[in-house]
Every structure is written in structure tokens, then in C-alpha cells.
Specification:
The protein is α/β, with parallel strands linked by helices. It is built from 13 helices and 21 strands. Helix 1 runs parallel beside helix 9. Its EC number is 1.8.1.9.
Length: about 500
């Protein structure tokens, strides 16, 4: 490793590699403490050539466009339901993919612009270059035009996130797209095969079906690995009722383009088969962009399996180099996690604070057609940690009031509260499937952080009629064997 530059001879106090949510949060916080900050951001084109502006995955090809397309799908469903409520909706109701993509991309571009303005206002220098380490205090930014700029900094933050992984089978990179491409796809995707059943795969399949396109999900083993199995089974059942098809226990072996322009996908598994699709979307996980940084030049160590950085309080094995977000080994790959960690890190480095990032009890939501929100432990994790004899699981099906008039399916609206059995029955996890699940679970996440017990839930008067109030009414345990299905909206 090259010798460290003496203190006081750096170009910047903080150099941030990666212009996503976590890196920008840390950069802006550090700037507010009077530090000189530079942000490097560069998007390597996808296999299809897709690129985007500053803001990272969430803004450009993740949370934001995903939520907007999910909303578009829900609106289509609501249009049809409106007839039941007396609205005269003329037939036929049609949808235009190109219009949606244009609206989504216009919003993203506006966020890109606001981000650039914020950096300028905070006097944070922005460099559109791909950063690679030269040593522990030096990064070389490689520009699109081939020029290079050598930048030194006292502290360096790695916040480069990750990109979708491509599985290894013939035709994958040639003919398949990823979530990097879907949200700006210029033409309608048509009949789509989604390979992978994590949250990205299920969310994309869900909104594509809601927008009127056939959607099939190919699953190697299980859906939503790491989530509560009761809840996952209900998510799958609801998606199947909505018309999403599932190919369980299948692995793609080849994709080829046919004379008619369709993609022929061949697969192996308990039963080999094949099918034709208009679009094939691979969503089998993400790869951290750590190796692209030339980390060995700075002496950085990477976890041999995940390819991510092992950190203590976001500090890598090199004292002046830190990391936040999806490049951290064993941490949640969630935008708000990266933002919070980045802000707190800047406070510790430059404002004398001591507060550490708390990675426990982080809430999240799967924006499937019927959403699934959760915080805390799954039932399986609680049993593994405490044993089945020491936990209590309260559960209930419920009937959203707004589902009655259009006679929507309520059989998958379900919630679960996992507690310790011993008084005061500390709440270990909360899980909710239903409309607006993210909005429902967010408040309970704060309550769990504050030490929520089951008695607190019982003592809370719910707002009626809402779906969130169902958590204040739950009282049937799995252990009892009683039927958790309500008899009426007020039972």
C-alpha cells in the first residue's frame, strides 16, 4: 500500500464514493459541520445500455419508480372498483405503458436536478467520475471522456451500493433485462417472465400484472427468503388469485430469441420445460460494487462470500475509510438504513456525537399487490432465538371496510404479533398483510423501538374503522387453536 499523505495536505476532509441516498446524506451532514466534501458518482451502463443521473438506485431504478408503478397498478384496480361506489366509468378502460414511463422518468429527472442543486447550495463538489483507490487517502476519478482526476481526502466513505446479478445461463445477458432497465423500458413489456422471487421480483411481477400484462415468476426454491413464512404464503396466494403464475422449483437453462421476436426460455427442475415470453426480467439478487473500486490498493478487506465490507460502526479495517448502505456485510439493504447510518457517521466524525446506527427492528414493506409490512423478528426467528415454549403468537384475519362494497377478496388480510410469553410480553415482531401496509407498520416500528408490550397494544384505543386498529384488537393466540377469523367488522 502506498504511504499515507501527511495530515493537512488533503484536497478534501471527506470524499464520498457513490451518489446514492447514504453517501449523499453523509456528505450533506458533513458539509453542515463546515467540512470540505466531494462526491464521486458514476453509473456504469447496464447490459442493455441503461444509465441514469445522480441519486443512486432508490431514486432512479429502485424504491421511487417501483412505488410509482405499484401505485399505477393500484389505481387501475380502483377504477374498476369505483363502479361499485356509484361512479360511472366508461368502457373500455385502457392503459398506456409509454405514458407511465414518461411520467415516472420525468419525476426522476426532477429529483436528479434537485439533488444537483442541493449539492451546489451546500458547496459540495460533484464529480461525475468512476472512483478507484490508489491508496488509503487517494482516489482516482475516471471520467466518461477518458480523463482522470486524482483526489486526496482525510476520510473516505464508500457508498456505491450494488447492481443486479445476472445468473449464468446462455442468452441471459444478451436477451434479459433487470430492474435497472424496466422502469425506462421504451415499449410495453408484454408477457413477462420474472426470474427470482425476492422482493424486487415479486413487486415487479405484481405491478406488471396489475397493469394488464401476463406475469410469471420462476422460483428456484422459496419466495421471500428470510421473511415470515405464514405471511409469505399468503402473499403468494394473493398474487396467484390476482393471476400471477408461479413456476416453483425451476432453474433457467437457456434463453434464445425466436424468429417471431419472442424469447424462448428453457428451464430445468423437478420437471423440465420451456415457454415463450415477450420480456424476461432477472431479479436473483444484487452484487455489491466493491471490487470495482480496486479496494486492495487501499488495503481494504472484503468478506469472501458476500463481497462486501466488514465494518465496526461503519468503519472498515482501514481506520479512515468507512462504508454505508448495501456494501456492508450482514446489514439490511434498505435506503433509509443507509441514510440514517450516513447521517450518524458524519455526526460522530465531525460533530463530536457518539450515537451509533441501530440495525435492529428496522421496518420494511413488500409492495406486492396486497402489501406486506413487517418489523422485528419473524415467527421462525423468534422460535430459534427463544424456543417455542417462550413465545406467544397472536394472529387475526380481518376485513377492511373499503373491501365490502366492491366485494374484494379479504381472505388474505392477516396480521401477526409475536411476543415473549412471560409478562409484560415484550413485542418481538409485528407482521401485516393488507392495503397501505407500509403506512400501518411505520408507527408500530417506533413503538417497538420504545419497548412496546402486548399490554400496550391492549390499552391502546384504535381508530375505527381503520385497518391499523386491528393490531389493538388482536387477542387470539396460535397456541389456543381458536379461529382467528372475525365475524363482523366490529367483532
Amino acid at each position: 500500500m502506498a504511504p499515507i499523505v501527511p495530515s493537512g495536505q488533503y484536497d478534501f476532509d471527506l470524499l464520498v464514493i457513490g451518489g446514492g441516498s447514504g453517501g449523499l446524506a453523509c456528505a450533506k451532514e458533513a458539509s453542515s459541520f463546515g467540512k470540505q466534501v466531494v462526491v464521486l458518482d458514476f453509473v456504469i451502463p447496464s447490459e442493455r445500455g441503461t444509465t441514469w443521473g445522480i441519486g443512486g438506485t432508490c431514486v432512479n431504478v429502485g424504491c421511487i419508480p417501483k412505488k410509482l408503478m405499484h401505485q399505477a397498478s393500484l389505481l387501475g384496480e380502483s377504477i374498476h372498483e369505483a363502479r361499485s361506489y356509484g361512479w360511472n366509468i366508461p368502457e373500455p378502460v385502457t392503459f398506456n405503458w409509454e405514458s407511465l414511463v414518461e411520467a415516472v422518468q420525468n419525476h426522476i429527472k426532477s429529483v436528479n436536478w434537485v439533488t444537483r442543486v442541493q449539492l451546489r447550495d451546500k458547496k459540495i463538489e460533484y464529480v461525475n467520475g468512476h472512483g478507484v483507490f490508489e491508496d488509503a487517502h487517494t482516489v482516482v476519478a475516471k471520467m466518461k471522456n477518458g480523463k482522470e482526476r486524482r483526489i486526496t481526502a482525510k476520510d473516505i466513505l464508500i457508498a456505491v451500493g450494488g447492481r443486479p446479478r445476472y445468473p449464468e445461463f446462455p442468452g441471459c445477458k444478451e436477451y434479459c433485462i433487470t430492474s435497472d432497465d424496466l422502469f425506462s423500458l421504451p415499449t410495453a413489456p408484454g408477457n413477462t417472465l420474472v426470474i427470482g422471487a425476492g422482493y424486487i421480483g415479486l413487486e415487479c411481477a405484481g405491478f406488471l400484472k396489475g397493469l394488464g400484462y401476463e406475469a410469471t415468476v420462476m422460483v428456484r426454491s422459496m419466495l421471500l427468503r428470510g421473511f415470515d413464512r405464514d405471511m409469505v404464503n399468503l402473499v403468494q396466494a394473493e398474487m396467484e388469485d390476482k393471476g400471477v403464475k408461479f413456476l416453483i422449483g425451476k432453474i433457467p437453462s437457456k434463453v434464445s430469441k425466436q424468429p417471431n421476436g419472442k424469447l424462448l426460455v428453457e428451464w430445468e427442475g423437478d420437471e423440465n420445460g420451456q415457454g415463450e415470453f415477450d420480456t424476461v426480467l432477472v431479479a436473483v439478487g444484487r452484487k455489491a460494487l466493491s471490487e470495482e473500486l480496486n479496494p486492495s490498493a487501499a488495503g481494504l478487506e472484503i468478506h469472501p462470500e458476500s463481497g462486501k465490507f466488514i465494518t465496526v460502526a461503519e468503519q472498515t479495517n482501514i481506520p479512515n475509510i468507512y462504508a454505508v448502505g448495501d456494501v456492508l456485510h450482514g446489514r439490511p439493504e434498505l435506503t433509509p438504513v443507509a441514510i440514517q447510518a450516513g447521517k450518524l457517521l458524519a455526526g460522530r466524525l465531525y460533530n463530536g456525537t457518539q450515537e451509533q446506527m441501530d440495525y435492529d427492528n428496522v421496518a420494511t414493506t413488500i409492495f406486492s399487490p396486497l402489501e406486506y409490512g413487517c418489523v422485528g423478528l419473524t415467527e421462525e426467528e423468534a422460535i430459534n432465538r427463544y424456543t417455542e415454549d417462550k413465545i406467544e403468537v397472536y394472529h387475526a384475519y380481518y376485513k377492511p371496510t373499503e373491501f365490502f362494497i366492491p366485494q374484494k377478496n379479504v381472505k388474505h388480510c392477516y396480521l401477526k404479533v409475536i411476543t415473549l410469553l412471560e409478562a409484560p410480553q415484550k413485542v418481538l415482531g409485528m407482521h401485516f398483510i393488507g392495503p397501505q401496509a407500509g403506512e400501518v407498520i411505520q408507527g408500530y416500528a417506533a413503538a417497538i423501538k420504545a419497548g412496546l408490550t402486548f399490554q400496550h397494544l391492549k390499552d391502546t384505543v384504535g381508530i375505527h374503522p381503520t385497518i391499523s386498529e386491528e393490531f389493538t384488537r388482536v387477542g387470539i393466540t396460535k397456541r389456543s387453536g381458536d379461529d382467528p377469523t372475525p365475524q363482523s367488522c366490529c367483532s
